[in-house]
Structures are given as C-alpha cells and as structure tokens.
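Review form for a predicted model. The reviewer records the input and the model, then writes brief findings.
Reviewer: anonymous (R2)
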Amino acid sequence: MGLHSFPRTDSLRKHLRFGIRTILLAVAVVAIGLFWIRWPVMTASSFVAAPEVSPERVIVDFDTLDEQMERIRRFAIDERNSGVELKAFDRTFRDALVGVQHFDYGMYDITARRGKVAVYGPYYSFGAGKLRR
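Model under review:
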C-alpha cells in the first residue's frame, strides 16, 4: 500500500494550496487596507512634527496655494502649538474610501488627504466652539 493508493491525497494538496494562496491574498488585502486607513494619520503626524512642506504636498481646495502656504508658515511659527495633541475627527465611509481625514490641533484644523495637507485657522475658542479670525 503506497502513497498512490490514497486518491484523497492529491485533492487535499489542491485544497491546501488554494487555502494558502487565499490566506496570503487576504493578509495582503488587510495590510493594504490598514495602510490606506492609517495614511492620513501618518501624514498629519509627520506634518505636525515638521511643518515645512513642499507646494506639491499642499491641498488647494478652497484657497489659493499662496494663502495655504502662508497659513502653513504661520502654523509653523505659532508658539501656541506646543504641548497640543493631534485629535482626529470622525470619518465617514466616503472619507475613508478616498483617504481623507480632518484633525483638530489646538487652534488649527488640519486636513490630510493621500499624502497632502491643508491647514485652516487659527480659530479662537469662546466656550461653544471655534471662531475664525
């Protein structure tokens, strides 16, 4: 009775090979998904740590590039940013799908989208919320 007398061995090998491929694919998809979800957080954190950014990495949606660069320059020299924690706002499914997240950083709001950033503010708090200067 040799190894070839068991017909189930070949089908077991096929299923095992399919299972390993499926598991490897699932691991790769999960890793890519986690990276995609964490990408805005990593972008905003690195920006807060070193606020110098090139114009190619600036989001220009509502203002001109010059206005956004001036806001980033003011953000970089603002002493009120010391000791402030980066807080993420809740994201919608659409935001997660397109890789966007908004953050509160003291008197400023930061938007990170697929490796690019935008700064809005400074805002002043008067109890109920933030008022733009």
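Findings: Residues 87 and 104 are 5 Å apart (CA to CA).
Further findings: The two ends are 87 Å apart (CA to CA).
Recommendation: see findings above.
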